[in-house]
Amino acid sequence: MTSDDQENPEFNLDSEDVLLAPGEPLKIVRREPQIPYPLHTHSFAELVIILSGTGHHRVAGQLLPIAAGDVFVILGNRAHGYEDLSELYLVNLFFDPAILEARTYDLSRLPGFHALFTLEPQWRGEGDVTSHLKLDSTRLDKAMNLIERIEDEIKCGEDGYRYMAVVHFMRLAGELSRWYSGAQHPGARRLSRIGAAIGYLEQHLDEAVTLDELTGLADLSASTLNRAFRRAVGLPPLAYHLRLRIRRAGDLLRTTDLSVTEVAGLTGFDDANYFARQFRNVMGLSPSVYRIKAG
Fold first, then answer.
1. Does a structural domain hold residue 94?
2. Is residue 224 included in any domain, yes or no?
3. Is residue 190 part of a domain?
4. Distance CA 259, CA 164 (A)
5. Do 15 and 159 lie in a common domain?
6. What is the Cα–Cα distance from 174 to 255, expressed in whole angstroms?
């Protein structure tokens, strides 16, 4: 296969082979062993934990070696498959990406969170980006304990099982993010620095942030950081931060009785008129009209 095959996967798993049913946030499938699998896509995201054996993961036109302890995330829009397998046992955890877009408190403060769930999935197979998180036996056992708790909730099907399964999934995401943050692989450290910059912006929606702050945090040049952000979130860092602040302002306008000037101040805008212009640029409506329509 050539890199062109990435744009022409053999099939999509969202048709008759539905793996994540509508309304279900999670599903776990154990591959014991995994069989060779052609290029495919799907709308859900996929967390893969390799339990034993070896093989190759095809993505972005590259064949990446995989082995016990490797952990990686695949976004549904990326064609991928498995080849050259030797007793490869793995766990697939299919999940709705919206889970990680919900309120996660300070999870995004962990540099490894965005590195594992945002950056590496988009860049996997490009340059030196491969599986930078590798678990030792102790951590693999801990991860599998949480996987089993998710499985138990899904199998029992009692009222509240979806919520409880997601709780255990978020615990797993937190542990993996912490481990990734501490990884010493040069590639992992580079992605974690970029992840730290993304997390910093997401945690500072009440003030403006300078590019100098971010380059110092990520230890990268402004041009490198700009390119990384464009690839990761589609915008340069300060434009991404502005959009986050405006969206936060929209939440406040929709859910509180605060004045437009007060909302502007709480999202880091000293000038209410400037805030209103930026709000209209992002949301397509003035703050006042947005509040009326949202109400």
1. yes
2. yes
3. no
4. 38
5. yes
6. 29
CA distance 197 to 213: 9
Residue with tokens 């976004």: 75
In this predicted model, what pLDDT tens digit does every residue of 205-251 receive, in sequence order? 999 999 999 999 999 999 999 999 998 889 999 999 999 999 999 99
Tell me the CATH number at 56: 2.60.120.280
Tens digits of per-residue pLDDT, 107-151? 888 999 999 999 998 888 776 666 679 999 999 999 999 999 999
Domain extent at residue 238: 204-295
Can you tell me the distance from the alpha carbon of 174 to that of 107, in angstroms, rounded to the nearest whole number? 7
Q: What are phi and psi of 275, to 5 degrees?
A: -55, -45
CATH code of residue 267: 1.10.10.60
Buried b (16+ CB within 10 A) or exposed e, 78-115: bbbbbeebeebbbbbbbbbeeebeeebeebbbbbbbbb
Backbone angles phi, psi at 183, to 5 degrees: -65, 140
| pTM for this predicted structure | 0.85
Rounded CA-CA distance 201/197 in Å is 6
Whether residues 144 and 235 fall in one domain: no
Domains of the chain: total? 2
> Residue 164 is inside which H or E element, if any?
helix 161-181
* Residues 25 and 114 occupy one common structural domain: yes
- Closest to 72 (Cα-Cα) out of 12, 25, 118, 16: 118
Whole-number Cα distances in Å, 280 to 22, 25, 156:
34, 34, 48
In a domain, 211, yes or no: yes
> What are the angstrom distances between the C-alpha of 156 and each of 151, 161, 165, 224?
9, 7, 11, 48
